[in-house]
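Example record

The entry below shows one chain as it appears in the dataset: sequence first, then structure tokens.
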Amino acid sequence: MKISSILMKKAIDAFTLKFPNRKFVFITIILSITLISVSTIPLSAQERVDIDTLLYRYHNPEQDHYPDLLPEDCYLELYLENGILKKGYFWGTSDEFEQAREGYECGYFVMPMTDIKQDKDSISFRLDIVKTSSGEKVNTFVKAPIDRHIRSWQEAMSHYQTWEPFTDRMEDEIQMSISFARWLENDVVRYGMSPMKDSITVKNLTCPYNDKNGRVFVLLKGKIPLSS
């Protein structure tokens, strides 16, 4: 038994002998003092969790030549605990899921990052196309860039018009609308991320020729960059 516990027990016994009807009151006082002492322990002595939210943006400078078009910037929002990526969201365009786009405007999406893996030098994650229980692809894309306060496709679909070129088949051998994501393995796109001081390089691992050297997402918000 610790010395502090022995002294507390002796104090309670002495008080009880002198005031037998006030033992409960004395114990209550002692417990209150103990709780106050615990609550004033410095933060450094307690378990500490550093939480931060990082927001990154990718902008293709080629689009600056077409100011009348809707912006096609991509965003990443990352949630970290003690430097470990716990979850994230990706705002982007249908180009992430296509080999090429010709003759039509892109669709926009927001999706959660799945299968997040982080090691000493890199981070990887996936974006998954939504499917029904029977395996049919669900159109979760809209016609305009999605505001960053929206983090689910259901909410996005309730605020924006649905993007029309989504289909999963060719019609009469004429591409009336795109054969969306037919080439993807299990309708999943895999990415690798390489953190830097104020930016992060994101590379499409499933279709590497889309961005052979990766795209640089610049840090917009956050105080604790991901450490490599």
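Notes for this example: Residues 23-41, 172-176 have pLDDT under 50 and may be disordered. The chain has two domains: 3-39, 51-220.
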